[in-house]
Batch of 4 targets.
Target 1
Amino acid sequence: MSTSRLSARPGEVIDRSQTVRFTWNGRSLSGYQGDTIGSALLANDVRIISRSMKYHRPRSYMSMDYWDPNALLQVGDEPNVRSAHRQLAEGMEVSAQNVWPSVDRDIKAANGLVGRFLTAGFYYKTFIHPQRLWPLYEKVLATFAPGGSIDLDTPHGNYDKRYAHPDVVVAGGGPSGMAAAIAAAEAGAKVMLVEHEYGLGGHLRWGSEADQAVVREMSQRLVDLGVEVLVDSTVTGRYDDNWISIAQRSHPGVIERLIKARAKVLVVAAGLIERPYVFSGNDRPGVMLSGGVRRLVNMYGVRPGSRAVVLAGNESGDQAAADLESAGVSVVEVVDARNGGGITAAEGSSTGVERVVLADGSSREADLLVTAVGWTAPTSLLNMSGDRPVYDASAARFFPADPPETVLATGGMIGDGSLEELIAHGQSTGQLAASRAAVTAYRLQAATARASAVQGPEPAWPSDNRAGLEHRHHPELYRSSTHGMVDFSEDVSSKDLVAAAAEGFDSVELLKRFTTATMGPSQGKLETVNTVAVLAEARDETIAEVGTTVWRPPFAPISLGGLAGRIFEPVRRSPLQDWHEAHGAVPLVAGAWIRPDHYGNAAQEVRNTRQNVGIIDVSPLGKLDLQGPDVPQLLNLLYTNKWSKLPVGGVRYGLMCADDGVVMDDGVTGRLSENRYLMTTTSSGAGTVWEWAENWLQTERPSWQVDVTPVTGAYASINVAGPKSRELIGRLAPELDLDPDNFKYMQVRTATVAGVANCIVWRIGFTGELSYEVHVPAGYALHLWLQLLEQGDDLGVGPFGIEAQRIMRLEKGHFIVGQDTDGLTKAPSTGMTPLIKMDKEDFVGKPELAWELETSDPDVLKRRPAVVALQTLDPQVVPEEASQLVRGTTTEIIGRITSSRMSPTLGRSICLGQIEQQYAEAGNIVTVLLTDGRRVEAEVQAHHAHYDPEGSRLRG
Amino acid sequence: MVKTTDLDLTSSTAASPSFRSSAVVTPTTAGFADGSDGVTMSDRADLTKLTMRCDPASAAASWMAVSFGSARSDGDVLIVGMRPDEFWLIGPADGVERARADVPTSGLRSEVDLTHGRALVQVSGPRATKMLEKVCGLDWSENMTPPGSAVSASVAKVSCDIVRAGDSYLISCDRSFGQYLIESLADAAQEFGLTLGD
C-alpha cells in the first residue's frame, strides 16, 4: 500500500488482513476492512477530493467524521455520500462530484477569480432582472449546482420503518451515554442507545489503550443488560411528548430505516463537536482539526502529512501533536493559544498548505496545520425540546439551560471532567431517567383502559439531584486577525458575513438565510457558533447578546427514502380477482380496489350481455347490514325518499344528501326480514356512508336502535345480466320462484344458489337488462362464478368488466355519483326531484333543499346545473369526458360532458353532462368544445336513457 | 385472561371444500420460508366469526363476561369485547354454534356472521411481538397491552382488530385487504425468521 499508511496502531479499527478494492475517479485503489472511504483515500495519498460549492476551491478532509464539510462524494449511483463517515466496501466506485474536467483541474475554479463579486445575495440580486430571462439563467445556473448526479433508472432499494416504545432513549454512545444506558437498564428500564458513528465510545475511540478497554467493558455490559444498541444511527428529531425519530443506517437488508420511538425519557449525550478556526486559507487542503487528525492516526493508521504546525487552544491539540509525533510526523511548532500564541494564515498552492504564518509574522514550512480551538455542544435535540442554551464566555461554548424534565442532558455538552467524572454523571443521569420513566409509565398505564392494573400508589416525581460538571476555562478562539471560511459547505466567508451585516442583515436569523451560512450538509454543527461570533464582532456585541439560530429537526439530514420508509399501499381484492387475472382481465385501479376493466373486448362484452347473458364481479359494491326496529327511521333520515312502508322482500332506490343538499351517495336498500335490511352504497362511498350512519346514530339519534355492520367483504356480488339471465339463475337456484309476477323488478330474496345457502338475490341492475345480482358469502364466490360459467355455457354466458358495465349504464342513462355529479351537485340537479319528499318530517339536507326547491329567483333557476343526456349531431364524435359545453359560437361555459362513450348497442356516441338549466330543455343544441379545439354540436335528450327509456327490458 | 394454551384454533369451519380463504399464504407470498421459528403465521380465515350486539347492561352481555377491549376463551371459542356493545365469537363452527345457543336472548339485539367478511391471521412465536411492534404503532409491552387485550389499530395502514393471547395474536381485517395484510406481515416478519403455519 502507500507511504501514508502507518504500521499497526494499538486501537485501530481496520482489519489489515482484509483488503478492500475500490476505484477513485476510475483508478483502482485498495484499503482495509474498517476504513472509511476517506481514510482509504488519504492512505492512498489522495488529498484533494472535492471542490467547494461556489468558488470550486480544492478541498480535503478536515474533521474525518460525519460532519466533515468537504467530504461529499459520489459512490456508484449514490450522490452526496459522506465519505469521511461511510465505511469502505468492496468494489465501490468513488468519484468527485460536480467537477470538470477533474477534481485536480476544475475549470469552474475561475469563479474564485471573481470571488469578490460573488458575495452573499449575488444570485438573488443579479438574476432577478430582466424577469423574462430567468428560464435561461436557470438553465445555466443549474450546471453550477452542487450535489452529484442521480440516475433515475437506479433501483431504489428497500427502506424500512418500525415503531418502538422504549422507556429511555439515549442519544449518543460516548462514555456518558453508555453509562446512562447501563444505569437505566440496571434500574429496570427498557433502553435504546443510539450512536451516530459505527462504534460506541465517542472520543475514547481514538484515545489511549486504557480508554478502549473501558469501551470494551461497557459495551459488554450493555449486551448483558439487553440494551438495544443502534450504531451508525442518528436521533434526528425530538417532538412533543418525546416522540423521537431515529434514522438507522445499520439495519441489515435495507438502506435506511426510520424508527418512530415514543420514549418516556430522552437522554441527550451528544458529546462535543470540534470547531474550525477562521483565518486566511483555513479551507486549504492540509488544514485539519485535532480530532480529525487523531481519528486518522489512531483509528485508521494513516499519516495526514509530513511536517505539521499545531495550534493548541486545549489539550486536544497537545494530544494531536503527540499522536503525530508517534506516527513519525515532524511537528515543527506547537503554537499555544492558551498563552497568546496565534496564527494568521495557511499559505500554499492549489495542492494544499505549504507554509503557516504565525501571529508574530514569522512562517513555518509545513504541509499540515492542525487546529484545536474549542468545541460546540450540539444541543439540537434540547433546542427541539424547547430549551434555549446559554453562552458561557469563560468556557467559550453554549450550555443547556432548562430542558423539560423528561429530557436530560449529560456528558461533554453539559461540562468538563475526567473520564471517571463523565461516566459518573452519565450513571446518575441514567438512574434519574429510569426513575422518571417509571413514573411516566405508571401514569400511562393508569390512564389506559386495556393496560394491566397499576401496583401501589403513584411514585413521587424524582427530583434532579445530579452533581454537575464544571465549566473549565477555555480561550475564546473564533477568528484570527484575518478572514477565512466560516461555512465550508456553502462557501461563506467571514468577510461575506461582515458585508451582509453591514447591508442590514444583522439579526442572526436573517444573516443565516441571506448568506446560507449554517444551511449546508453539516447543518451548522461546525459553523453556527463561528457565524454568531463573527456577527457579534461586526455588531460589537457579545456572543450571548447575539444569540444563536434555532436548531430544528433533523439533527442530521435524512434521505427521502428513509422518510418514506416501507411504502404501505393497501390493496383490496375481490375473491374473484385471481380468476379475472388468470383470464386476461386488464386491471383497473379503483381507489384501493383492483378490478377487471375488460377481458379484451368491452364492446363484445356489451353485445353478448344485451343478446345473451353476462356476469360481472361487482364485489366492491358497499354493503351495510342494518338491524333493529328503528332502521326505517334511519333510512328516512339518510335518504331523501320514504322508507316506512317498504315490505319484506322489497327494494327501493335512495339518494343520500349531505347537510348542504349535495348528493353524497346513492344505492338500493332491501328489506330481508322484519328487522333486517341490507343497504348498498357506491363502491367508493362504502366507508363514508358507514361513518355517516354511525355518526348520526351515535351522536344525533343515540336512542334509536339500529346496529350497522359493514359486510362489503362478507359477500361477493355477482351481477347476472341479459335476456337469458332468468334461465341461468333458474338452473342454479331451482327452489327460487323466479316467476316475474312473484319476483319482480326491485325485489330481493334469500336463497340457496349453486348449493350455497344464505345468498341474497336482488332483481336490480345497472345495465338496463333483466338482471339478478347475487350476493354470495365471499368464501364461495369462486364456486358460484364457475358454476355460472359452466351452467350457462349453452346460453352464451360470458364475463364482462367494468368498462362494459360503464357503457351499458350510460346507454341506460344511470348517473354515477362523483362522476356525473360533483361536490356542488344538489339533489334537484340530478333529475331526481320526485324522490325528494319534502312532506317527510325531516331528512338530512332538507332545509337546504327546501330553499332550492322553493326559490323563485330567476337567476338561480336559470343557472342551476342539470344532469342531462346529450348526443352529438355527428354520431361518430365521442367528446372526451370533461369537455366543456359552451354557448353557441362563444366561449361562455355553460356546462361540461361528464360521461361519454361510443355505444356498441346504438352504434353512436352517447353522453351525460351537466348544463345550466336554461339550456337543458330537450331538443336544445349546444356546442361541445373538444380538447383538440374543434367545436361540435350536440342535442339535449328528453330522457337520461339513450336506450330503452321505458325500461321494458329490465322489467321483463 | 387468555393464555395461548387456552386456544385451540387448529380445527376449522371448512364447511365445504369449495370454501376459499381471503388470502393465499405460500412461500412465494412470504418471499421465503426459512424454517426458523421467530414468527409463525397461520391463515385462520376459515374460523367462524360471529358478531353479537347487545345492550351492555343486559343478561346477554353478562354472559359474555368480557369488558370492552378484552377477550376470554370458553373452550375452543374466543369471546371478544370488540366494542362497548359488540362481542365477537371466534372458533370452529360447531363451537361457536354451541356458545351462541347459550347466550341469553335478553338484551341481544342482533347478530351477523362475518366468517366470510373478515380475513384472520394468527401470528405467534417468540418474536411475534417484535414483528407486530414494527408495523403497528401501539405500545405492545405486556403492561400496556396485556394478554387478553382486544384492540383496533392500524397495521401496515389497514384498519385491524387484534386480540392478544400470550405470544399469539389474532389479527383480522376486512376480507378484501386479506391478501395485502398477509403479505405485509410476511414482509415485516422477514428479519425475525418466518415459518408458515398450518
Target 2
Amino acid sequence: MNSVIKGASYILAHTPEMVIHNGTTQTTERIVNPDGDYLKALPSHLRSYEDCVNYWPNQVYIGNATPDELAEVAFPYYDKTKEGASRYGKFGEIMPEEEFLILAQCCDVFEVLLLEKGFVAANKEKLAADPIITEDILARVQEGVELSEIEHFVNDEHAEGLYHAGQLVGCVKRAHDIDVNLSAEVMHENIMTKATSVLALLYAVKNAGISKDDVEYVIDCCEEACGDMNQRGGGNFAKAAAEIAGLKNATGSDARGFCAGPSHALVEAASLVKAGAFKCVLVTGGGCTAKLGMNGKNHVEAGMPALEDCLGGFCVVLMENDGVSPEINLDILGRHTVGTGAAPQNVIGSLVADPLERAGLTINDIDKYSPEMQNPDITKPAGAGDVPMANYKMIAALAVKKGWLDRKAIPTFAKEHGLTGFAPTQGHIPSGVPYIGFAREDILAGKIKKAMIIGKGSLFLGRMTNLFDGISFVIQANTAAEAQKEAGVSEEEVKGLIAKAMKEFAASLLAE
Amino acid sequence: MAILKGKKVVIIGDRDGVPGEAIKACVDTAGGETVFASTECFV
C-alpha cells in the first residue's frame, strides 16, 4: 500500500546579520565593489525580529494563516502587519537570531563554532524556554570563550564572524589549514543548514505525533555539500542532524537535485516505505546562508526591506499506511527526462500533463498544484515576476492545448487550482513542498481530494550539464478502505473463515 | 528577424522564464552568432 504523510514541519530562523556577512550577493559585492552604496545602505533595510514575525508570508509558512488568506491581503505584503502574529505556529516557529546561534553551537561537534561567554549567558535561557528544545540539546551548550579569542580567530585565522545586533559575538573556525572544503565559510554554511534541519526534525516528530524512536530513516535534501578534499560531497547531513535531534534508531543519507531535491527525496522516501524497507522515513531540508539577501540590491533600490532575512527549513514524515492520512500515489509520477528538453512547455508537459494522461486523468482532476512557491513580494521587485503564477499560466495554457480547458477559463484556473506564493527564496525550500502541511489538512478536512507537488531544479548551475530537471507526484485522500473493498475479502473475514473451517474440522474429528 | 543577422549575441536566460538554450535556438535561426549563453536562477 502507498505510504502516508503523517505530518510536516516548517521553520524559519531570522538571521539578519548573516544577510550582511554570509549572503553571496553581499560577499561578492564586498569583493567587487567594497565602497559601493549598496553595502552602505543594506543595514538600514534589514528588518527587526518583530517585523519578520509580523510578516504575512512568514506566518503562512509556519501555519498561522493559509495561502488563501494571504491571497486576500493587498499586494505588496511587506508594508502590512498580520494581526495576531506569533513566533510559534502549528507547523513550526520563527526563531530569533540570538537563540539560533546557541542552537548552532549545540549542532557543532568539532569545536569550530565559538560563542562569547557573555552572549551565551545572556541567551541560553531564552533558547531553553522554547518548548521544542530538549534537555539533550541544552546539555550541549558550551560556556563560551573570551571575546579576545574570537577576535584572534577572525582577524588572524580566517574564521567567519558571528554577529548579533552589529556586535561580534562568536565565530566559525576553519576545520583544516589547507582544505577549502573545510574552510570557515563552508563550515559556517554547513553548521547553519544542519541547525535549521535539526529544528525542522524536532517539529516534524512532534507534529506527526510519533516517538523519536519510531524514525528509521532520514533523507536530507538541502543544496549544501559536506566533505573534505578527498570526498567533496561525501555527506551525510541526514545522519548528522538526526544525531542532534535524538533520532537514535535512524540511519539516513543525502539526496541532491538542486531545488528539485525535496521532490526527488519524497518519491524515494515514499518508495522505501511502500517497499517495506523502512516503516518511518523523514525527509528534511535545512536553510541556505548563501541565498540570504540574494535579491537585496533590488529590494534596497526599491526602498523596501531586504526580505530575504530568514533561513528556512522543512521536514515531512512518511509512514506505513494508517488507513486515514493522505497518501503519496507512486502510480502518478511526473518525470523530466534527459530527452525532455528545456522549453517551458516541455517541462510542464513532462511534469504535469504526461503523468496525468498516463493515469487516465486530466489537469482538471488535480484540485491544487504546488510548483515553486516563492513569495512574489520578494521576486517581483527583483524582476523575476510572480513565479507560482507563471507556473499556473503555463499549466492552464497546456490544458487549453490538450482540449481540457476552455481558453476563457485561464484567468480563473490559477484561483481555483493555484496557491499564492508564501515561501522564502531559499532554493529547495520553496520548491513544491511548502504546501504539503496544508495539503494534508485540506485533504483530511475533505476540502480537496488531490494535490500535485512539482519540484524543478536548475542542474545547469553546476556546469556539468545544460539539462533542466524536475519530478512531480500526487498526494491523495487515503484509499486503504477502497483497496480493501476491491480486494474482495478483508483480513478479518479471512480469519473468520479459517476459524470456522477449524471448528468444523475439530467437530468432524470428535464425531469420528 | 533581420535585427539579429550577423550580430554577436550574449544570452542570459531565466530558469523561471525562457531558458538560455531556447533563446540561443531562436538567435541561431535568425542568423545571429551566440558568443555566450547561460541560464541563471534568481530564486
Target 3
Amino acid sequence: MSANTALAEKYRNNFLKEIEEQVEMGDWVKMCMQCGVCSGSCPTNFQSAWEHPPQELFMMIRAGKRDEVLTSTSMWNCTSCYNCIVRCPRKLPITHIMHGIAEYAHRIGLAPKMQATRFFSGLFWKNATKTGRVNELKLSMGLYFKNGFGSGVKEGMKMKDVAIGLVLAKRLNPLELFGGHKCKDQKGIQAMLKKAYEIERSRKAAKMAG
Amino acid sequence: MAKHEYAFYPGCSSQKGASASNYLTSVESMCKTLDVKLTEIPDWNCCGASIGYAEAGELPRHVMNARNFALSEKNLPGQEIVATCAACWLGARETRERLTHSDTLMADTREALKEAGLTINEMPNIRHMVEVLIEDLGFDEMKKHVVRPLEGVKIAGYVGCQTNRPFGVDGESFENPQYLDRMVEMVGAESIPEYEQKVTCCGGALAFSEPEKAQAQIKDIVESAYDHGAEMIVTPCPLCQANVEIYQGQINKTYGTKFNIPVMYYSQLMVVAYGGSAKDAALNGQMIKARRLEEIAAKPVKR
C-alpha cells in the first residue's frame, strides 16, 4: 500500500483530522471564519488568481475534498510575503499552513509533478543542505536545465543579459560551478539532518497510529 | 573595544561573488564608521529560506537555524545574533519562536544537534541590522556621521516583505512602515513617504520559478517609484534588491517600459553620506549603475 493510500484509508471521511495531524500548523484550519481577507491580500492571487485561494482551501478541507486540495497547484503560488498572516483577523499562520499543505502533498506524492515552484523548492533545499550553503550558480542552472539540455540552453539564453550583468557586477561567479562556498562540518550537518528527518517521521507515524 | 558587538550571520547571498556581496561590503564600511563590531559565526549554515518548504519539513528546517544558534553560543557567548538578510533574519526568528513555545520541538532539536556535537542552552536574540541601527544606535547617532549629505536625491524606500512581516521592526506598522523613509532623510536625501508600493511583494523565489508572476509585481514597484519622481529605490532586503534591479530589462521587453532605475541598500547610501568612496559603498556591484551616487562619492568631503 502506498503512503498515500494508507493515509487516505486511515483518515477516511475525516480530511480535516488528517490535515490537523499531518500538516504543519494544520490544527489552525478549523479557526478560519471565511472572511476572505487572506485571498484579497495575496499578491499572486490578485494578478493571476489561484485555483483555490487560502480561505477556499480551508473550506474544502472541512468539506473533505481531499484530492482536489492535495493535487491543487494553488499552495505553490505562495511567495512567502506573509501579508495573509499579518492581516488575518483570527491570527491563522496562513503562510505556514500553505507551505505545510504543499509539503504534505509533495511528501505523499500527490503534488503536481511539473509545477515549477514545487520543483524549485526541492531544488533549493537540496542545494542548500548539500554543503550547508546555497550555491547560486548551480541553483539557477538546475532550474533552467530541469527539462533537459535543449530547453536548458534556451532558458539560459533568455537569462543571458541578467547573468552577464551579474558577472560584471561580481555578483555571480562562474567558478561556483566547480565547488564554491560550503560549510566545513558537512558531515555533522548531514548527520544532524538525518536525525531530524527520523524524529519527524516517527512523530507523524505515531499520530497516525494513535 | 567597539561600542557595539554582535555575532554576525551574513547568509549565503552575502558571500564573495554571490548576489548580495555588495550589501556585505557596504555594511562592513558602515559598521566601521559606526564602531559596530560584527564577528562572523564560525561555519554558519543556510537558514533554509522560506522557499525550501517542500522538502524542509518542520524539524529539519529548525535544526538548520538551531545549528547557527549553537555555534554562536559556543564561539561568541552572550552576543546577540545580527543578520543582514531579511530571509536569514526571518528564518532564525521563526525558529527561535517555535523552539521557545514548544518543549517537544526543543527536545527534538537538541537530539538532532547532538549528531553534530552541538547543543543550545540559551536562546539567542535575533536582530536585523536595521534594528541594530534604529534601536541600539538611534537616528541621532546615525546622523552624526553624515559628512556628505545626499542633497536633492529623491529616493523611494522599498521595505518589501520579510523585514516587515510577520515580525517587522518594533513600533512600525505592517501596512506603512516609516523607518526606511526616516533613514533616507537621515542621509540628507528626499524620501517619498506616500510611495504606495513600499511593502508590495517582489515575488520572492517565484522570480526564478514563475518569472512572469514575479515580474508583474516588480513592474508595479518600479513604476510607482518613477511616478513619484524617484531617482533610485532603496531596500533592506537582498532578494528585494536583486529582483527589483536585475529583471528591469526583461520587464522592458515584456511591457514596453523603459525602466532603468538603480536599486540600492540603505548601507550603501549611508557609506556615501559618511564620506566613503564608491568602492567602500560597493557601487560597482550595481547592475544598473547609480550614477548620481557615484558623482557624490567622488566629491570632496565637508568636514
Target 4
Amino acid sequence: MKTMRKAISLWNRGHWKDYVFSQGMLLIASLLLVFFISIGLGVGNILQRFLSSDLPEEQVRVTPLGVQAGFFQTERGGTEITENLLDSLLALPQVDRIDPQVYAHVPAYLRGLLGGRNYYTDITLEGVSDAFVPDSMLEYIDWNYTLSDSSVKPLPIILSEDLLILYNAGFAESNGLMGLTPEGVIGLEVRVNVGSSSIASLQAPPINLRAEIVGTSRNTALFALAVPIEFVEEVNALFLPDDRHTYSALMVTAHEAEDVPEIVRYAEKMGLSAETRRGIAQKAEILVGVVTAALGALAAAILFSAVASAIHTLVADLKNRSYALGVLVALGTKRERLVYIFAFQIFFMSLISTVSGGLLGCALSYIVSTTLLNLLPVLKMAVNSLAVFPAGWLSAGLGLVLSVSTVSAWFFFRKILATPVTELLRR
Amino acid sequence: MSNPLIEARSIVRVFDNLKVLNGTEFSLSEGEFVAVTGKSGVGKSTLLGVLGTLDPSFSGDLIINGVNTAEVTSQRLAELRREFMGFIFQDFHLLPNLSALDNALLPAVFSGTDTRKVRDDAAAILSRLGLRNDNTPTRFLSRGERQRVASARALVNNPRVLMADEPTASLDEESEETLFDLLDSLRREKGFAIIAVLHSKKILSRADRILELKEGILHENHA
C-alpha cells in the first residue's frame, strides 16, 4: 500500500492540475444527477398530490362534458344531466345508488374575515348529498340544512382544497394576505348572500345567511362551494321556479368495484364525462410520467455530456502521458501492475469527485427547494419539501457515473498499455 | 564455459518490407563489455530494443539468462527487464517532473519493492555520479546531468546487463570519459556486462569486443 501511494504520488507529480478539469466535470455530472433525481421526484410527488383523489374505488363521478367553472358556465352546453338520464343510469344493474349534485343557478356572494381582512367574492354553490361527505366528517357535522334552519344554525360549507391552493397562489400572494391551510379555514364563519352578486341579481330579494366552513375536500368542483343538496334545490325552486331541473354531477355507486367500467362506458356513451379513482390515477400517472421523463431526459443529456467530457479529459491526459507509461513498462513495470495502480487512482479520484458532487447536489436541491417553497407558499400546501433524497436512486445514479467514468478510463488505459513499448517511447 | 547472459540466434526484424535485422547472431557473457557500432539508421537501436525485450516483433530465438523469450509471458519479460537489465536510453527517457532520486527509484517503486534499501543504493550511486540528491525536477538539469541520472536509474537495481544506446551522444569528451570511468569502476565492482551502442573511438577502445552492424548482420570488428 505504501509503495502504491508512492507510485501514485510520483506518477502525478506536476500533473495534478490536469485532473482538475476532468474531476470537476465529474463532480458537476454527479451534482446535476443528484439535483435532477431529487427535484424530479419531488415534482412528481407534488403532481401526484395535486392530481390524486379520494374517490372510493366503487364510485364513478359523472359530470357533463366541458369545463365547469362555476355559476357563470355551470353545466350548460353539451349533454345535461336530467332526471331522465339519472333514471336511466339508476336502471343499470351494476348501479347500487346515485347521489346527485346540483348547482345553485342563483347568483351568490360570500363575505367574511379571512386572514384578518375583509374578504368578498362571488361564489357558486353546489348541492351535494351526505354520501359525498366523508364519513369521518359526518361524525361531527350536521349536513342537513334548509332555509328554515337559517335562524338556528349556520349553512355548512365544504371548500375545495384546490381552491385554497389557488387562493394562496393567486389572490393571497398578490394582495399580501396570509396563506390559508385546511386547518386554518375549518370553523371559519362567513356570511353568504343568495340571490345577488357583484354582477347579477334576481328580482326576488336576496337572502343573507350565516355560514360556516366545516371541511375541505379534494372532490368538490374547483369553483364551487359544496353545501347540502336540499338547500340548493330549495334555493333554485325559490328564485328560479321555471328553470329546468338538471344536475351538476352524479356520484354513482356500483355494487362492486368491478362494475365501474360498465358504468363508465354507459355514461360516456351518453355524452357525459365519467371519473373514477383508477382513471384519475392513470391521468396523474401519465402526467407524472411525462414530467419525470422530460426531467430524466434533460438529466441524462447533461449527465452524458458531463461524463463524456470527463472521460475525454481523462483519456486525453492518459494519451498525453503514454510516453511516461512507455518508460515505466520499459523499466520493467508489469502492465498489470500499472493497470491496478491507475485503476485504483482513477476509481479513488472519481469516487471523491462523485461523492462530493452528490453531496453538493443534495445541498443544491435543498436550497432550491427551500427557496421555491418560500417564494410559492402554494407548494407548502402540498409538500414539506420539493426535494426528495431516495438513497437507492441516488446511490444507483452516482454508482453509474462512477462506474462509467472508471471503466471507460480503465478501458482506454488498457488500450494504451497494449501498444508496443517502442511505440510508446516515441514522443 | 558458462552460459551466455544473452544469446540471439537468427534474429530478423522487418519494418515495412525492410529487413533491418537480417539473421543477426549475438551473445553476451558475464561481465563482458560489448560495443555495437554502425552507420546511422543501420538498426543499432532496433537491435538493442530486441535484445532488451522491448520489441517483441521479431523472428528468431532470443535467450536471456537461459529463458527463451518466445516462451514466456509479457509479465515475465517485464520481470526480466527489471531484475536482469538496466537501460540507458539515447533520449534518457526520464520523467521530467521527478527529481534525480525519484527517477532512479521508478523501477523499484512501480514494481512494489520496498524502496528503503533501494533508496540508499540510489543515493549512493547518484553521489558517485556526482549528482546532488535534492528535489530539483530533472527537466531543470543539464543534458550531462540527465545522462548521469539515466545511468544511475539503470544501475540502481543491480542489473547483470547494462544496455546503453549512445549514452554519450551529446556529451563532450571529458564528460564522456568521466561517465565511462564511473561505469567501468562500477562494472568491476558489481560485475555486470555492458552492451552499448557507441561511436566514440576512445570509449570503443575500452570494450572487450566491438561489433559492427552492417546490412542487418553483426560483424566482429577487430580494428
